[in-house]
Amino acid sequence: MSKVIEGLVKRIEVLESRISELEQVEKVGFSLKEAQEYIDCRHIFLASGIETHNELSTRSKRVFHNNNINTLLDVLRCGEKRLLETEQLGKRTINEVKGILRAHDIELGH
Asked: Distance (Å, rounded) from C-alpha 76 to C-alpha 95?
């Protein structure tokens, strides 16, 4: 796939994610401004570097780095099944990540 198409696919994924988040926020009854602030906070959290999360062990951070998984968004894109197939990445690391995500009401997909 060309880099242009890959870039477009990523942008579409972000837009779909934002639409989904807006739909969820709308159900709760937030104002548009509150909804946007909520979404922005979640995106900042997901885009933050793996190394910034002290809940992860140094070993886990190194394994993620070695596999070019640099943000929690990268982790979510991989999903649990693919992460478990990653060399030197096991249940313990998955559970660490799930704990971080769970604290923000986000689930790691399969």
From this structure: 13
